[in-house]
## 1
Amino acid sequence: MISYIFYFAAGTIAGSFFYTLAERYSNGKMKENPLNALFSRSECPACGKSISALYLIPLVGFFISRGKCTACGNRIPFIYPAMEILYGLLAVIIARFHGTDLLSFFIYLIAAVSVTIAIVDVKTMMVPLSLNIIFFVLSIYPVILHNNFMDSFYGFLFLTVFFLIIMFIFPGAFGGGDLKLYAAAGFLLGLEMSIVLLEVSLVSGAVFGVIWGALKGWSFRIKIPFAPFIAAGIIITLLFGDTIILFYYRNIYRF
C-alpha cells in the first residue's frame, strides 16, 4: 500500500510537468520558444504571475492556495489537479498490472506522452510532431528488450499502410498526426498487438462519434480529435493486450 502511495505521488509530479507541457503546446509557447516553455516556472493563467515553489507541489499546492492565485485571487482551473490525479493513477495502474522495473518506467513515460498528445489534440485538433518523435524514441528500449525487430517493423508497416489507405478512401477522416502516432505505436507494439490497438481505438472512437453526432443533431460532419482514442488504445494494449489476445484465441479464433 505504501509503495502505491509513492507511485501515485511520483505520478502526480510527472503529471504536473506533462499537463503543463500540453498547455504550452496548446497555447503556442512551445513553438515560439521551446527552451523557455520547457524550463520556465508555471504562471497563473489569469494574471501571468509566476507561481511560487510551495504552490507548485502537485495537489498539495492547489489545496493550500484553496484553488486561487495568491497574487490576483482568481481561481485556478480544477483541471490542473484533476490531470495530476490522472497521471498519478496511471502510475499506480502500471505498477499494479505491469510491475515496477525499468521497462515499466518506460511504459509509464510512453503512456504519459500518449495522454499528453491526446490533451493537445483535444485543445488544438493537432498532434505535435515532436511529441510523436518522443513517443518513438521512448519505444526503442522496449523494442530492443523484446529483441523482435521484425515484429515491430510489421506492426509499423501494418498500421501505416492501413491508415494511408483509409486516408486515401476517406479524405479528412484522419490527420497526418494520427497516422504518425499509429505508425510509432505499431513499431512499439508489433503486429499482433497493433491489431488490438486498432480494434480498441476504432471501436471506442466510433461509439463516441455516434453519441457525439446524436447530441449534435446527427451532424456526422463534425470532426472530433482522435488521438484520445489512440492513446486509450495504446495504454489498454500495453497493459492488457496479452489477455485480450488470449481471449481471442480461446473463444473466437478456435471457431
Note: The chain has two domains: 1-100, 126-255.
## 2
Amino acid sequence: MPFLHGDFEHLISNSIPLLVLVTGLVYFYRRLALKVGVWIWLLSGFWLWLGGRPSFHVGASAIIYGLTVFLFFSGVFRKDRRLMALSLLVVFLYGGLIWGILPIVEENSWEGHLFGSCAGLLMAVIYRGQGPQRPAYSWEIDNDAEVEDGPDAYWKSDEGMQSGAQP
C-alpha cells in the first residue's frame, strides 16, 4: 500500500510529511525508529486488510497517520520538554489530519488513516518505557523516606526506645 500512489501529486503530498515525520522519529527515537516504523506499517496494513471496505487503498497515509500519532502521544507519555515540543510541532503541522480518520470524504481511505493512527497509539503505549526519558531531578527523588525508615532510624535504636520515641 505505501508504495502505490494514484498520481504524482499524491506521491508528493505523502512524501513531504513522511520525510518530516521520519526525520523527527529517527532524530528523537533513534533506537526505536525502525521497530516503530515497521510495526506501524505492518499493523495498519493488516488491520486495513481485515477491516477496510472492498476498495483500492493506496498511498503512505496510514504510515503518516501512525507516525503522527506516535510522535504526539510518545511525547505526552514521556513528559520530556523536548519531546513535548515535538508533540506540539506535530500538532501544529499535522493537526488537521484528525479529520482524515472520519468517513467525510468517500474517496479517501479513512480506514487506513484510522488503522494507522491506532497502530501509532499502540506503539506509543508499548514503547513508552523505552527510548528517551525525562530526566529525574534531585528535588523529585524522595530520599527522605528511605533515610527515616532505614535500619539506623532513631526510634528503632535502643537509645530512641529508652527515651520514649514513637515510630
Note: Residues 1 and 21 are 18 Å apart (CA to CA).
## 3
Amino acid sequence: MKVFSLGPQFGPYERIWKSWAPPKCRFFMWLVAHDRCWTADRLARQGRPQPEQCPLCDQEEETINHLLVPCVFTRQFWFSLFQHFGIHQFSPQPTDSSFDLWWERSSNATAGLTKKGFNSLVILGAWTLWNHCNSCVFDGAAPNLAGTLGFALEECRLWALARARGLSFLAPHPHPSPL
C-alpha cells in the first residue's frame, strides 16, 4: 500500500536537469517547459507590443512551441544539426506540434551515451534558436540558417571540450551541406 505520493511528475525534469548543459541553458529549458518565455503570445496576454508573426518564418504567431518545433526555419535547423551527427531521423516532422512531446519521444528512442548526447544537443539547439530569434527581433538580423547552424556546431564543440557527457559521443558525420 502506498502511504504518500510525491505529487505530480514533471515530465521533462530528467531531460533538463540531468543533461549536461550550462545552467543558464537548463534554466531556459525550464522556462520553455513551463511556457514562461517572453514570446509574442505571452506579450499579447500582457497587453504589450509584439511582432505579429514568427520572426524566423513569418508564417505563424510566435509562441515558444512554434519557435522550437513546427516553424519551417526551425525544422530545417534541427534536420541540418542532427544530420551533422548522423541522427537526422530524430528531427521534428511536419506533424510534430509539441516541443515537449517531440523531445520526449525522440529521447526515449535513444539510450546510454547517445541519449545523454541527444538531450544536451536538444538543449543547445533550443538555446541557439532562442538567441537567433532574439537577434532577429532586437538587433534587426535576418534569419540565417547557415549562421545559426555554424554557431550551434561551434557551441557543440565547446560543450564537448567542457566534458558534456554524451555530447562528445555523438561523432560528426560528413555529409553534403544542404545550405
Note: The two ends are 58 Å apart (CA to CA).
